[in-house]
Every structure is written in structure tokens, then in C-alpha cells.
Amino acid sequence: KINGDRLWASLMELAKIGATEKGGVKRLALTDLDKQGRDLVVGWGKEAGMSITIDQIGNVFMRRDGTNNALPPVMTGSHIDTQPTGGKFDGNYGVLAGLEVVRTLNDLKIKTEAPIEVAFWTNEEGSRFVPVMMGSGVFCGAFSLETAYAAKDVDGKTVGDELERIGYKGPQVPGDHPIGAYFETHIEQGPVLEDADKVIGVVPAVMGLSWYDCVVTGMEAHAGPTPMGLRKDALQVSTRIMQEVVAIANRYPPYGRGTVGMVQVFPNSRNVIPGEVKFSIDLRNVNDELLNTMHEEMLAFIDKTRSESGLKISIERVSYYPPCPFHPECVDAVRSATAKLGYSTMDVVSGAGHDAIYAARLAPAGMIFVPCKDGISHNEIEDAKAEHLEAGCNVLLHAMLERARV
Amino acid sequence: KINGDRLWASLMELAKIGATEKGGVKRLALTDLDKQGRDLVVGWGKEAGMSITIDQIGNVFMRRDGTNNALPPVMTGSHIDTQPTGGKFDGNYGVLAGLEVVRTLNDLKIKTEAPIEVAFWTNEEGSRFVPVMMGSGVFCGAFSLETAYAAKDVDGKTVGDELERIGYKGPQVPGDHPIGAYFETHIEQGPVLEDADKVIGVVPAVMGLSWYDCVVTGMEAHAGPTPMGLRKDALQVSTRIMQEVVAIANRYPPYGRGTVGMVQVFPNSRNVIPGEVKFSIDLRNVNDELLNTMHEEMLAFIDKTRSESGLKISIERVSYYPPCPFHPECVDAVRSATAKLGYSTMDVVSGAGHDAIYAARLAPAGMIFVPCKDGISHNEIEDAKAEHLEAGCNVLLHAMLERARV
Ligand SMILES: NC(=O)NCCC(=O)O
Ligand SMILES: NC(=O)NCCC(=O)O
To answer: Where along this sequence does the record place binding of Zn(2+) 1 (chains A, B) (predicted)?
Structure first.
């Protein structure tokens, strides 16, 4: 069994970097704070005797040799970047649970046949740079290194330049790195486990996701003298689409999701009718056919709104991945480790994307969920219980040992 | 008659300060660019032999003595701050038309009995700092100097500090300054004159205005795993109110106006359900009773939305002034000057607020409108014809001479 106190202490230590007043963490990908977080974790990895490899997209792999190093490593990992209003556990838990597994193996002087690796992937959150899950996406070839390097934040800074600046543009070619099996522990980020009072979520699949940028262009004009009938109000037209995004998701329960999370209004002055509004759309479903139906309904609604309003409306898909069922062998490894340890458990479909879905394109993969308070994440008040985090890490240890062999 | 070419040349010279790529001007109140614009105009005033007074809120008065300086001055003026996407004429025209009147009187060696003053008022636009029409508002006692000094921009900078920084916190107590009569020339900022093919708008009244800040507070959570039915999506609730603002205005034609111009979404990340949305509401009407009805309907809708959604919604009125009918003597002075000069004319209610409505609380006041292209202002493509600007300035000259006496 792993050391739950040590795991908790490491989580709290890492959470100091970018800590917010409300108890959350703001450590956006490739910022100075991200560098500090990376340095801390790499330092811990070295202390635990692991060797470090960094690839060209900044993914970091910390390796503990096995007795047969010709075997591909059994890998675990996640990310340490956070949302602008993020919590202490999202991603961070997956990385530090992996570290805790290695520390435990060291304590117990256990040698595995296959090597063990703990990875942290670059820019999983996708809130500073799109595409989301960038590091694992480049690693598995879902998109190119060039695409990723060219991605810009709102200030126009690129991933390529920022990686260089913080010293994490490594030499290794992404993907030039075999994987035997991949496991990822994560807080659920939803309310299902807590509601059902279960400790371990076995994850059969992750919902597919479509992200869009929508731009509505009207004509800015003075809010006083411009008669209502002569306006081309980009915000009013945008609000219709924003409402439809939610209406579409509501038509496809229980796994339809629709969210507008990001809005920019131009010129954003209180006495100017908005001339342009840009906003994001996030659609999800665990069934790819339904996800596609949602996509089609949204495009049709935008066409209708365009002709009714006479305003220019552009829509561009900026990210997409299909639903990802995990490998039966890895799902079973998680299920049997949970049974062996005697934790209460249920299956939970993941609504959030995870690096595991890209790792799953290269190797058998599976995930382990633990409950988080009120199902809340992407929020500074995100919280999780030490005993649940410890349980998830124990399941990880046993699932990895099953694959890596002692 | 005034010199239309000289007026145009001065307008184009001032428009270089803060010129935007699209041919507009961005010279927000109390920025470095505002200081440059102020310095240029003050320099021109001195060249025209005027003495300069600056008051504690940064209003600038440029004075040409009369033959009887015991008489209160006949004043004209406007503002030189602009919107973030502003044009060359809004406000600037009123100030430079006043300057052109003085230059013309100098050329023709005309002495007036009462002194003539050209004022420019601080932060008329209200887009960097609220309240709008701040300088003239403090001057007439609509709100206090302390309130104005404490006003903050989005970066937290205050009016008091910014006035000091640009060197325009003068010694004179605002309002400690008699006015005999006040005239203001301005582009119409609406489509009425152009539609009717008239050159001069006589302005009987200005619409009243109510501004609000509305904050909807939900709960930020992850866009993927959070089921639709468990969300507290602050943006979705906000879009209902945003649509109602327009619906209310549409119920009170022809002078009802409703606009949401400014929106901020928190945390503004594409995979986070918005936890908080702040937005502005702008309601106007020329009839105070109807304006109040609109106000009541909006509050009732917000109450209804609050109880239906269960989200916290706060609404605060941040600016209000009632409709302002102008003084019959000044309206007549404009009307008869227009008739004498033979320009085509009609009455136009002003949808935009102007410094004249605050000056009107201290002295008889009136306004002169000229057409602007497509009725567009608060937009970089704002435009006006030199011949119309010249005509408005001639009307100003004659209306002022009638009141100041030769
Ligand atoms: N786990 C997580 O928050 N991933 C970010 C991508 C997503 O929005 O699902
Ligand atoms: N004239 C003008 O644009 N004034 C600003 C205040 C308003 O929005 O009416």
C-alpha cells in the first residue's frame, strides 16, 4: 500500500505554486508558474532515483528502470497545468499518484520486470492554448508539432516561444517512445461517485468533444440615437446562439453537454451597440453519432440565425476528438485491483477529456476516478478527500504492478 | 461667416492624436493621448488670445474678454475624449467650432459685450470611467468631486490619480464660474437629419438615461462531466436578461432604447461553465414616465429570472439623468440663426447625452446638430461633411452673438 500522508503532503506542496486567495490554483500552461511546478516535480522524480526525458512539446517522462529494460514501460501520468480558476487536484493528482507509486516501490524495494514511467503532459487544460490535451495529442500524432508550436494565447504568445522561454523544449521526438500500457488516476470532476457514495470509479469510456469559435459581426453604433429597428447588434444575435447551444445538449440526455464558456465583446463600451462578439462553443457526447447530430443541429441553427438576422456569422471547429472506449484489459486491471483492495466501486463515463484518450491510441489504456467534493472542478473550491486519493493511488499501484510484473 | 477650411484643418490635426488604422480615433479620457489632445487645444486657445482656467475635475475654460467683463460669459463647448472605437467629430467638433468662432471674431475684430468662453469637459464619454459626462456633471453639482475622483477604470486606476498624472487637476472649484448662456454644436450621432436631407438639427430635448451594472452569480464547473440539469450557468441566465433589455425598448417606440454594450465572463475559459457574468444595461427614453416604466419592467424581469433560475442576480443603477428639455430662448436663438443663414432644418430629439444637459441646470442652454454619415458614431468610420460642419459653426456664431451682443 502507498503512503497516503506523503501523497497528500506533495499535493499541498505543489499547490502552493500559483495558489489563489480562494484556495485554488492558477498555474496556466507554459507560464513562469508552470515552470516552477515542473521544476519541483522533476526534482522529486530525481530524488526518487528516476531518469528524466523531455520531448519537443515539453512532455516530461520520469523513468524507473525495470529488470528487463527491453520491455516497453508501464506508464502513468497526467498534467500539472491548471485552469485560470483551477483546483489543487485536477491533473496534479494523476502525476503525484504516479510519483507515490514509485516512492512506494522504492520503500518496499520492489523491482518490476517492465520499467515504470511517470509522465506529465504539456497544456492539457487547453485554456491558455488550443488544442486541449496538446502534449499527449502531439505525442500520439493527433496533430502536428508545428500546429502546436503555432498556437497562440490571447496576447499572441506562441507555444513554441513559451516552451523555449521556460526551458522545457526538449530534444526527444514526441512519440519516439514505446508504451506497454497506460493508466491515469484523476478526480472525477463530476458528481456521480459522490452521489452514489462510491470510492473508485472504473472508467469504461470518455465522451467525445467538439470545440468551436463563433464570431458574429454586426455594426457598432451609438446606444442612444440609433433606433431599435436600425441596429445590427452582434450581442443580441449571439445570445440566441448561446441559448441554442444549451437547448441542443438538453435534447440528448443523459450524455449531451453544451457550454459557452468564453465571450469577448467589441468594443465593449456600455453606450456602444456591440459590433462584434466572439465566443466558444463546447459540445460533448459519449456517442459519436449523437455528437455529430448535435454538431449538425448547431450548424443548421447558425444558418437560420444568419439569414434571419442578416448579420455575418462565422463558425470554425477548433478541436475534435471522438468518444474513446478504454481497452478491456486495462479496464479489467483497474476493476480487479479495486476488488482485491475491497473499495466500493461503480463505472463512470468521463465527461472530461484526459491525456489517457491520446495515450489509448498507442497502447492499452485505462483510468481510475476518485470522488471530488460536490462534483466541482475547474473551480478554486475544487476539493477531494485524502482517503479517496489514497485509495485511487493504491488501485493504480496494483493495476500497474499487474501489467509490469514483479 | 466662419472659415470652414480652418475648422476642418483643426479637426484633422486633432484627430491625428490617437488615430486608429481604420480612420477613427481612440483617445480615452485622462490617458496620455488625452493629455496630448488637451495640450494642443489649449495651445490653439492661447494663440487665439484666450486666457485659460482649469478646474479641479479637469474641465478647461478658454476665455475671450468682452467689453463688459462683469457680465457672465456666453459659453460653448463639448469634449475631446473619445470612445475606444471613436471618430474624429464626436465632441471634438463642438470644441473646435467654439475655437473657430473666436478665431473668426478675432479676424473680423468684433468685440462682444459679454465675454465668450470655449469649454472642454472631462470624460464625457463615460467609457473609461463612470459616471458619463463627468466634468459637466461635477460642474453643475449632479454628483460630487469625491465621487468623480474615486471612479476607477478596469485596471483600478482612479480619476483623481489620472488627472494628477496628466497635469490637468486644476485649482478652480468646479461650478465656481458663472454662465450667461450655453450652446453646443455636435454631430447628430443618429440617422434622422441625413434621412430627411436637412443641414441643421434644432434640438428641443435630450433623452433621459439609466445605466446599470448587472452581476449574475452561478457556480463555475467543468463543461464536460457536469450534467445539464445540475448547472448554475451564469451566462445562460444572463442571456435571458440581455434579450429582455431589447424587448423592453421595443415595447416603447419610437424613443425607447435598450442596449447591453459591455460583458465580462468569469473565468472565461472554454471548458468552464461561467460562474459569474457582469454586464451593463443602458435604457433611454425622451419621456421620463416611460423611462421609469422601462426601469420597473426590467427590475420585475430580473426578480422573475432570479426566482426561476435560483441564481444570485444583483442590479445597481450607476448613472441616471432625466430627459432634458432645452431653454426656449436658446432653442429660438438656434432656430432664428438657422433661418437667417438660410439652412434647411428640422427638430431632432437627441438620443445621446451631452454636456449641455448639465450646463442647462445652471444657465439657458441649447444645441445645434449637423448630420453624420449613415447616422453612425461611436465607431471608427464615423464621418461628417465639411460643409455641414461649417454650417453648424455659422449657426453657433450667430446664436452666440445674439446672446453676447456686439
Ligand atoms: N480533465 C480536463 O479538465 N480536461 C480538459 C479537457 C476537457 O475540457 O475535457
Ligand atoms: N454624445 C455622447 O456620445 N455622449 C455619451 C453619453 C451617451 O451615451 O449618450
So the answer is: 79, 90, 186
- Cα A311 to ligand 1 centroid, rounded to whole Å: 33
* Nearest alpha carbon, ligand 2 atom 6: B353
Mutate to test the interface with B, among A20, A242, A378, A382 (most CBs of B within 10 A): A378
Distance CA A355, CA A177 (A): 16
Top residue of B228, B252, B286 to mutate, by most chain A CBs within 10 Å, is: B228
CB atoms within 10 A of CB A155: 6
Task: For chain A, 406 residues long, give each residue's pLDDT as a single digit of tens.
Answer: 999 999 999 999 999 999 999 999 999 999 999 999 999 999 999 999 999 999 999 999 999 999 999 999 999 999 999 999 999 999 999 999 999 999 999 999 999 999 999 999 999 999 899 999 999 999 999 999 999 999 999 899 999 999 999 999 999 999 999 999 999 999 999 989 999 999 999 999 999 999 999 999 999 889 999 999 989 999 999 999 999 999 999 999 999 999 999 999 999 989 999 999 999 999 999 999 999 999 999 999 999 999 999 999 999 999 899 999 999 999 999 999 999 999 999 999 999 999 999 999 999 999 999 999 999 988 899 999 999 999 999 999 999 999 999 8
Residue of chain B with shortest Cα separation from A213: B270
Separation of alpha carbons B276 and B95, rounded Å: 41
Indicate yes or no: CB of B239 within 8 angstroms of CB of A236: no
Query: What's the CA angle centered on A354, arms A348 and A359, to 5 degrees?
Result: 110
User: Is there a contact between A350 and B224 (Cβ–Cβ < 8 Å)?
Assistant: yes
pTM score: 0.86
